[in-house]
Design goal:
heterodimer, A: 0% strand, B: alpha/beta, five-stranded parallel beta sheet, 25 strands, 26% helix, globular, disordered N terminus, binds flavin-adenine dinucleotide
Chain lengths: 99, 424
């Protein structure tokens, strides 16, 4: 049952990825989903980590470690599980390029 | 040859027909196109959209924001004003930051929308023409569905739009005698902010425990169960507030008596010292101007790739006013995320390109259980081309294990960052 649902999700995601060319601003759009906490373009205004200018490798490592449970977190482990590796890579590169 | 307006119009019609991709330019990043977007409502959805339209178009798109209030006052954190830990000034933010972004701000009331002419009218007679319209009017109340409630919001406050109502509820709570009853009524879902009423019950109980410990908090829920973070709220209801909060499910309100502050349920009558009734809710009434049928007669049905209202071309609707995707809450965080999807889609459409075919949004709602400890619920939703809606990503999201001081700090940091993300 669980497997069947997982397959269905893969199918849906697969279809989305191939049916349409990727939006040229996908990285920007995905990174904007983090801004509510980490600030516009990753510039936090206090109490949360600034992601702008952080090396991409560091962002990828942190987020994947949150996802695997290696790095303890209050919330990032639950958020990280909503993004694919490719999406995290796009987001990391986008923030790394911000000042 | 088509002029720009006609071209944009036909592009919009194509998107509405669902034939995305056809008739749009290729996937190279196009130079941001110009155009005029009018935004109705400067709350969580509208302010975010106005800012991101200006920022992402590098100032090329003209944005006019119409908002009836002179300042933004946040519903999130307003329960801490009711608790007494915060003042109204702590949750009030000026619109000057948006002006700095080049957003034209008009303080007024939109009274009419002409979808065919692409024109909105304000109460003072001003008319604004748009290429695309973004509507984020939040909710309006349906007090007439509870006998005796309409027109009595001074005696029976809702405090479900932040501002004078918040201050009024705080005042009533301060004036209540020790040993009094604070009754809170929750309408049937969907309503604005699923965990919000339970947060309010907790932070009101926190204040009473410290100042009027003989008092009671009675939660009259029209729903069969707690609507969000149930396990976590029960930790508080059955823990610290065991002798103060009484939770009653299936307690739909029939009518109220404003002079005696009495709530009449199907089998019971309750006299309260403070009666806080959240009336049934619907999309902000301005959406009636779109000429489309509302789902359940309350919420706007939209296309998720562009956030365009079905049946109202060139009109994008976001925030509490829409009929949500499965498990998607009506929250400020979500309104902000809708607004970014809509802003990206509007800029693509103005440039003659299809909207992003793979949008993703995420939500977090923090709730305080007292003045310092908070907990969260989080979720991530991705577009499904098959279902044509946003669906929760399997395995993502979840809730805190328990309320904590650390999450109380993160909740306040969230509020500062989201206010900056929408208003500076
Ligand atoms: C007590 C409480 C606590 C909450 N806590 C949280 C929380 O912790 N986290 C969270 O994410 N969400 C929370 N919410 C929910 C959040 O407030 C809403 O989901 C959010 O405000 C929705 O954004 P919106 O843009 O749809 O509407 P709003 O933010 O309400 O914005 C609508 C704006 O449109 C204006 N407007 C409407 N019609 C017109 C018109 N005709 N002309 C001119 N202006 C108009 C209004 O004045 C208003 O400013 C809470 C809500 C409450 C009540």
């Amino acid at each position: 049952m669980k497997l069947a649902t997982a397959c269905a999700v893969l199918l849906i995601v697969g279809a989305t990825a191939t049916a349409q060319a990727q939006d040229p601003n996908l990285a920007r759009n995905l990174a904007a989903t983090c801004a509510n906490c980490h600030g516009t373009d990753g510039q936090a205004v206090g109490g949360m980590e600034t992601l702008a200018g952080m090396p991409a490798e560091r962002i990828v490592k942190k987020v994947t470690d949150y996802r695997s449970g290696e790095l303890p977190a209050t919330i990032m482990h639950q958020i990280a599980k909503g993004y694919t590796d490719e999406q995290i890579r796009l987001i990391a590169d986008y923030f790394a390029a911000r000042k | 040859m088509l002029n720009r307006r006609e071209f944009l119009k036909s592009a919009g019609a194509t998107a509405a027909a669902g034939a995305l991709g056809a008739g749009f330019a290729g996937s190279a990043i196009a130079a941001p196109a110009g155009g005029h977007v009018v935004v109705i409502g400067g709350g969580y959805g509208g302010a975010t959209a106005a800012k991101y339209l200006r920022m992402w178009s590098e100032g090329k798109v003209k944005v006019t924001l119409v908002e009836r209030q002179k300042q933004f006052i946040s519903c999130p954190i307003s329960n801490l004003v009711v608790n007494g830990a915060r003042q109204l000034s702590d949750i009030t933010v000026s619109y000057d930051g948006l002006k700095g972004r080049g957003v034209e701000i008009v303080h007024g009331e939109v009274t009419a929308i002409d979808v065919a002419k692409r024109r909105v009218k304000l109460a003072d007679g001003t008319a604004l023409d748009y290429d695309r319209l973004l509507v984020s009017p939040g909710i309006d109340f349906l007090p007439e569905e509870v006998g005796g409630l309409a027109g009595n919001e001074e005696q029976i406050p809702h405090a479900w739009k932040a501002g004078p109502q918040t201050v009024l509820l705080r005042k009533q709570l301060e004036d209540m005698k020790d040993g009094g009853v604070f009754a809170l009524h929750i309408p049937k879902a969907p309503y604005r902010c699923p965990p919000g009423p339970y947060e309010r019950a907790c932070v009101v109980a926190d204040y009473l425990m410290n100042h009027k410990p003989k008092s009671k908090v009675l939660v009259l829920d029209a729903n069969p169960d707690i609507q969000s973070k149930k396990g976590l709220f029960l930790q508080s209801f059955n823990g610290r507030y065991k002798d103060m909060i009484e939770y009653r499910p299936d307690s739909a309100l029939r009518s109220v008596d404003a002079t005696t502050r009495t709530a009449e349920l199907e089998f019971d009558k309750i006299r309260a010292d403070v009666l806080n009734v959240l009336p049934p809710m619907r999309a902000g009434r301005i959406v009636d101007q779109l000429g489309v049928a509302l789902l359940n007669e309350r919420w706007v049905d939209i296309e998720w790739l562009s956030m365009e209202a079905k049946g109202a071309p060139n009109v994008h609707v976001v925030g509490d006013a829409i009929f949500p995707a499965p498990t998607m809450p009506k929250s400020g965080h979500m309104a902000n995320q809708h607004a970014k999807v809509a802003a990206a889609a509007i800029l693509n459409l103005l440039a003659g390109q299809a909207p992003n075919p793979d949008p993703l949004v995420m939500n977090t709602c923090y709730s305080f259980v007292d003045a310092t400890n908070a907990m969260h619920v989080a979720s991530v939703h991705r577009y499904s081309a098959e279902k044509k809606t946003l669906l929760p990503v399997e395995g993502s999201g979840g809730v805190s294990t328990a309320a904590s001081e650390l999450e109380g700090k993160y909740a306040l940091a969230w509020s500062r960052n989201i206010w900056a993300d929408m208003l500076t």
